[in-house]
């Protein structure tokens, strides 16, 4: 067992397989999740359980967070049982959630005032990449803290890059997810257009997947369309959230703005389905 003690907060679709990678790498892990049933899988692998985020902070050297949005981050840090309530110093908090650059800057400063350090380290990739430790991880924060954290992050991803100061990782993630939203919608529109003109989805995607437009994303999401499988690997509601954050940071480009509006409209019916369920808007 490695000497660094780690904590993990957030055991959702991505958090559970990511936490599992640390356990497989022989790190001790103490976990906290609001829904206690989601802790069972990592408990079976050997994780310990904390009753509050503050307890995770007290019992860990490096704490990872993987939750849904800014509101969840505020809840984890704040209150009598939040991370900031723990009377400890020398901890490193790594926020891997897709959240706003502003919230990372806020909590990086509050952590520093308390004698701790903060990195924003969101990921590019979905469930399959999390399960296979093939995520792309973009990190903002102090370079010396990144150096300490990098070996642990390399247990989770195939590429770990320090992008810049606090919030830079979050900004890079919003840029990537803007492209993700545009690309998913473009694929959906192309398949729907072909169908409307008598070309089967299977035939069109065979052509695409053997062309210069081929990519793992197109292959995975094209197969999902063909199979009519919209089980969420990355829920549509999350792209709405990320495009909204990008808009708040000044994303006003034509394609990004169009995609944001399309996904917002679709989320009224498709929020909990996969991002490629946007296809249903065009058929």
Question: What this model shows, in words?
Answer:
With 283 residues, this protein is an alpha/beta fold. It folds into two domains: 5-165, NAD(P)-binding Rossmann-like Domain (Rossmann fold); 172-281, N-(1-d-carboxylethyl)-l-norvaline Dehydrogenase, domain 2 (Orthogonal Bundle). It has twelve helices and nine strands. The chain has helices at 15-24, 40-45, 53-59, 70-77, 101-113, 127-131, 143-153, 168-196, 201-209, 216-227, 236-248, 254-270; strands at 5-9, 28-32, 48-49, 62-65, 92-95, 117-120, 123-124, 135-140, 157-164. The strands form two sheets. It has a six-stranded parallel β-sheet with strand order 3-2-1-4-5-6, with helices on both faces. Strands 7-8-9 form a three-stranded mixed β-sheet. The mean pLDDT is 97.
Topology diagram in text:
Layout: E1 5-9, H1 15-24, E2 28-32, H2 40-45, E3 48-49, H3 53-59, E4 62-65, H4 70-77, E5 92-95, H5 101-113, E6 117-120, E7 123-124, H6 127-131, E8 135-140, H7 143-153, E9 157-164, H8 168-196, H9 201-209, H10 216-227, H11 236-248, H12 254-270
Parallel strand pairs: 1-2, 1-4, 2-3, 4-5, 5-6, 8-9
Antiparallel strand pairs: 7-8
Helix pairs in contact: 8-11, 8-12, 9-10, 11-12
Quick one: overall form?
elongated
Low-confidence stretches: none
Order of helices and strands: EHEHEHEHEHEEHEHEHHHHH
Strands of the widest sheet, in order across it, are 3-2-1-4-5-6
CATH superfamily of the largest domain: NAD(P)-binding Rossmann-like Domain
Strand coverage percent: 5-15%
- Overall average pLDDT: 97
DSSP helical segment count: 12
Radius of gyration: 20 Å
Quantity of strands, as a count: 9
Could you tell me the CATH topology label of the largest domain.
Rossmann fold
Largest sheet: 6 strands, parallel
Structural class label: alpha/beta
Helix proportion of residues, in percent?
A: 40-55%
User: Would you identify the CATH architecture of the largest domain?
Assistant: 3-Layer(aba) Sandwich
Distance separating the two termini = 53 Å
CATH class of the largest domain: Alpha Beta
């Amino acid at each position: 067992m490695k000497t660094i003690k780690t904590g993990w907060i957030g055991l959702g679709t991505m958090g559970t397989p990511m936490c599992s990678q640390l356990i497989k790498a022989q790190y001790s892990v103490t976990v906290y999740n609001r829904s206690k049933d989601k802790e069972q899988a990592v408990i079976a692998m050997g994780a310990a359980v904390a009753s509050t985020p503050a307890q995770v902070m007290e019992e860990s050297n490096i704490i990872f967070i993987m939750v849904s949005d800014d509101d969840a981050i505020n809840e984890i840090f704040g209150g009598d049982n939040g991370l900031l309530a723990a009377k400890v110093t020398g901890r490193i908090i790594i926020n891997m959630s897709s959240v706003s650059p502003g919230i990372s800057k806020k909590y990086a400063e509050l952590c520093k005032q308390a004698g701790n350090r903060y990195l924003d380290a969101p990921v590019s990739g979905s469930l399959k990449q999390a399960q296979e430790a093939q995520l792309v991880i973009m990190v903002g924060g102090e370079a010396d803290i990144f150096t300490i954290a990098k070996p642990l992050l390399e247990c989770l991803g195939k590429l770990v890059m320090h992008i810049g100061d606090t919030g830079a990782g979050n900004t890079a993630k919003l840029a990537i997810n803007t492209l993700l939203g545009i690309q998913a919608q473009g694929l959906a529109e192309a398949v729907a257009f072909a169908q409307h003109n008598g070309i089967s989805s299977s035939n069109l995607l065979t052509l695409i997947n053997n062309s210069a437009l081929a990519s793992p994303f197109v292959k995975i999401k094209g197969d999902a369309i063909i199979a009519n499988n919209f089980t969420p690997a990355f829920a549509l509601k999350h792209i709405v959230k990320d495009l909204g954050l990008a808009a708040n940071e000044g994303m006003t480009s034509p394609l990004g703005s169009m995609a944001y509006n399309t996904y917002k409209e679709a989320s009224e019916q498709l929020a909990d389905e996969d991002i490629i369920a946007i296809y249903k808007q065009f058929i």
